[in-house]
């Protein structure tokens, strides 16, 4: 098995870049070398894992069109089109194997396309790498898929299934993990700067240069989230296809000329591995969650136990645990409870003003609300409980703001009001770096037009427990 990590900025394509692509010359040279390698390898089936294909929270998108195509028309380039035959027998076997392993595959029907505005056509995450591959080699069938927002174990398992399905049909396969690294490498880039951006890219590239792919699973999920990357999950699916074998990884190039990290890397199968990486990933996840549980304070513990009790008994916790502090029983405050799963938001509900007789009961109610009543997510299920991580924010009473100069998105949360419409945003959120960003998001949540409507602003601070 052979695999590649390939970036996908449309600017790399000369017909789109119109000279700007020359700022990525190292990437272009590396892509040319990879295309030569693929032409020499002669795969019969190429699987491309794209972050810009439909991405579901709990299911792996798998394209089931008999012929998969796309074009560069959205970038004003006409006459360049892509058409590939899909291997539907392999696609169906992937779906069957996923079902047996407890994973879900999401096909996109014509009805779903129209209803949700998603497409089965090739996205730029697939077309950009394939543009360079097909310059040298075209004799392959294409499997078009994406990752989903599930945990590392399920991403890895999906990679194992991709390989198993290809080998079942006796095909020579190759997997491309499409993805860029951090989108926050510079202040003048389109996504701004975060110190975690260069840190994440440096760490990932160093691990690939040393073929230490196992250590990729030691990277803090919070670091990759703050780096705003889109390729890490693609890599994790790819690595699953090498289960049972050691991997030699090679970095052909890395650069970030537009404030986004582009890495071209190859993964080659070597001898059989003495220990299972899959089992190691499972163990690391258990150890990480155990450490989090051991370091929970009273606020986090109460939020977790409240939701766990409700999931199992379908009623609110009917007693106050003895570890709850005197302050939690005496004081009243608005409380927000946030739930994350594998670094991704799983639910967040809160109250601006207290609705219960004390902070403890406010936490109990809002923890259940975050798990069951956030309209963005399905209800939390019992088999998820062991993988959930909680934050609890205790809000100060809001105070009116007369000038935007009194705001600071790192220090203060905001509440915007216009008549009966109201929107709230907590402070110190990833990606919310300016007052304008903060107010625009809060207004959007309230249904207020930031540009044309007047609105009142209040600010508040939070005491954050995590």
UniProtKB/TrEMBL annotation:
Annotated ranges, domain AMMECR1: 294-466
SUPFAM superfamilies hit by this protein: AMMECR1-like, LigB-like
Pfam families: AMMECR1 (PF01871), LigB (PF02900)
Gene3D superfamilies given in the database record: Hypothetical protein ph0010, domain 1, Hypothetical protein ph0010, domain 2, LigB-like
PANTHER family xrefs: AMME SYNDROME CANDIDATE GENE 1 PROTEIN, AMMECR1 HOMOLOG
Protein name (database record): AMMECR1 domain-containing protein
Biological source species: Caldicellulosiruptor diazotrophicus
